[in-house]
UniProtKB/TrEMBL annotation:
UniProt key word Lyase: no
Family membership noted in the UniProt record: Belongs to the DNA mismatch repair MutL/HexB family.
Keyword match Zinc: no
Gene that this polypeptide is encoded by: mutL
Protein's name according to its UniProt entry: DNA mismatch repair protein MutL
GO molecular function, one term: ATP hydrolysis activity
Secretion signal span: none
């Protein structure tokens, strides 16, 4: 600051415009604040109309309790609210509470509010233009409140430059309405963009109300395939729906997270979701899910940011573990067992593998988890000889191997097609994880060390993780300039591609560094080892080996899906095959 500059008090109009920038980022922010106000007013029908991507017009009408003239005059004043009793910020149970939304909108747009309190003789209207409040006037309105916003950001032209295309702003508005509507199936919503009503969600009060909303908002496939989950622990309650990992997406747009009915994008919850799905999704893909977390208001701080999209939990570790555990239990029962495949679309609409319930097995002894892959290929005690009849095995008896990549097995009422590499990859991965949790993975020393040429920077990355690799049975050391020597590999690795594994691990470390937790980091390494150490496509298997693989799958959790999110087997029911050939 130069000697000629002095501190001065900002004028009220500029203060309001600065404050508005925190609350009103784009037209979708306006819609969010107005719709939340309508919900807090006990509305049962909310109608949203926009034009010009929300910059020309936003109108939100509701049938809530409305306001009288005194409340209407106060609602456009900063920090005036009816939702915060006294000075208690620890028991917030409404969506709004800061008293900033309406004055912030009025500071950057032309705002007009018409309202009539239930039972009142007449309605009233007030206007605010660029922060200047107009006179109260009588108006015509049957009930509820209508808020009309025109020429958004005309008072802050710089903000207009950051507006996206009309199409993008319309999409953001639709997303906001959908996220709020999903949490309130008892309220009807409409969204009209220009002359077209793009969203019409009638109110529903029956037991299937949330299912109907799921179909309309997240999609019919999600509603049909998602697993319902409910959990309670130490005052926390979680309910919702989690899609099978096969329904993954390229973005996190289909993740709907709520805390006490409030849509949030909370890093802690997103981290718990990522960790729960980590074993089932390809890297860079995102699961679909809808989760409603209920927690006592005094145990969560929603006053973190003016936009109220972030929260802070008093017991963050407990919340993360609770959400992660509930999702893992739901996925443990369903992941990999429910996937959708379209086969002969003209005659078969959908063929879904009907998941089996893996028989409860005694925990493997440590030595069993260390068996090399060659040993796994030998028949287990349950499959000493190839099974002649399907018997009662969920995955049936192996009948053939085709293209040296797929196992065909037969059950009493179906055919099962197994991807041998994907299935074996999951088996090896689960064994590596179990061995890791039991103290470490046994290493198999190499008679002749494998020398891998690498950049010095990659060698530095690998050596920095040397202790973690050792826990997984991978023994490495420097071997002069530009090379790494591998002296031991996990016993389960067999004759896999050692050089390919080492280079892939270096790429992984270079791309992500220390971004993951230690546990997730070790599991990622396990996944790489499993991929490179599994039975490859192109390897011919004997009947006994195929049956042994099927029996191992039946006894292994999550065996219906490989580590990259792909199904390991598809089951075709006999009646579907008969339909394919016109027999039904």
């Amino acid at each position: 600051m130069s000697a000629t500059q002095h501190i001065r008090q900002l004028d009220a109009g500029l203060i309001n415009r600065i404050a508005a920038g925190e609350v009103i980022e784009r037209p979708a922010s306006v819609v969010k604040e107005l719709v939340e106000n309508a919900i807090d007013a006990d509305a049962r029908q909310i109608d949203v109309v926009t034009a010009g991507g929300g910059s020309s017009l936003i109108r939100v009408a509701d049938d809530g309790v409305g306001m009288d003239a005194n409340d209407l005059a106060l609602c456009v004043e900063r920090h005036a609210t009816s939702k915060l009793p006294g000075d208690d910020l620890a028991h917030i149970d409404t969506l709004g509470f800061r008293g900033e939304a309406l004055p912030s909108i009025g500071a950057v747009a032309d705002l007009r509010i018409t309202s009539r309190r239930a039972g009142a003789d007449s309605a009233h209207e007030i206007a605010v233009t660029a922060g200047a409040k107009g006179e109260m006037r009588p108006a015509a309105l049957n009930a509820g409140t209508v808020v009309e916003v025109r020429e958004l950001f005309h008072a802050t032209p710089a903000r207009l430059k950051f507006m996206k295309s009309e199409r993008a702003e319309n999409a953001a508005i639709a997303d906001v309405v959908k996220r709020i509507a999903l949490a309130h199936p008892e309220i009807g919503f409409t969204l009209t963009t220009g002359e077209r009503t793009g969203l019409k969600l009638p109110a529903a009060g029956d037991d299937d109300a949330i299912r109907h909303r799921l179909e309309r908002i997240v999609g019919a496939e999600f509603a049909a395939d998602a697993t319902a989950l409910e959990a309670e622990r130490e005052g926390l309650r979680l309910a919702g729906y989690a899609a099978p990992p096969t329904l993954h997406r390229a973005t996190g747009q289909a993740q709907y997270l709520y805390v006490n009915g409030r849509p949030v994008r909370d890093k802690l919850l997103l981290g718990a979701v990522r960790a729960a799905y980590a074993d089932f999704l390809p890297r860079g893909r995102f699961p679909q899910l809808v989760l409603f977390l209920e927690v006592a208001p005094e145990r969560v701080d929603v006053n973190v940011h003016p936009a109220k999209a972030e929260v802070r939990f008093r017991d963050a570790g407990l919340v993360r573990a609770f959400v992660h555990g509930a999702l893992r239990r739901a996925l443990g029962a369903e992941a990999g067992q429910r996937t959708t495949q379209t086969i002969a679309a003209e005659t078969l609409e959908r063929v879904r593998p009907n998941g089996f319930s893996a028989p409860r097995q005694p925990a493997y002894a440590a030595a069993d988890w260390q068996r090399p892959i060659a040993e796994l290929d030998r028949p287990s005690a349950d499959a000493a000889e190839p099974t002649g009849e399907p018997a009662n095995h969920p995955l049936g008896a192996a009948r053939a191997q085709v293209h040296s990549a797929y196992i065909i097995s037969q059950t009493e009422d179906s055919l099962v097609i197994v991807d041998q590499h994907a299935a074996h990859e999951r088996l090896v991965y689960e064994k590596l994880k179990a061995a890791l949790s039991n103290g470490g993975v046994k290493s198999q020393g190499l008679l002749i060390p494998e020398i891998v040429e690498m950049d010095e920077s990659d060698i530095d990355l690998m050596m920095a993780q040397g202790e973690d690799f050792a826990r997984l049975g991978l023994m490495i050391e420097r071997f002069g300039p530009g090379a790494l020597a591998v002296h031991g590999v996990p016993a389960l690795f067999g004759d896999g591609d050692i050089k390919g594994l080492i280079r892939d691990l270096a790429d992984e470390l270079r791309g992500h560094g220390a971004a993951f937790s230690l546990e997730q980091h070790l599991y990622d390494i396990c996944a790489k080892i499993a991929c490179y150490g599994s039975v490859r496509a192109g390897r011919r298997l004997k009947p006994a080996e195929m049956d042994a693989l099927l029996r191992e799958m039946e006894a292994t959790p999550h065996s219906g899906q490989c580590n990259h999110g792909r199904p390991t087997y598809i089951e075709l029911k006999l009646h579907d095959i008969e339909r394919l050939f016109g027999r039904r």
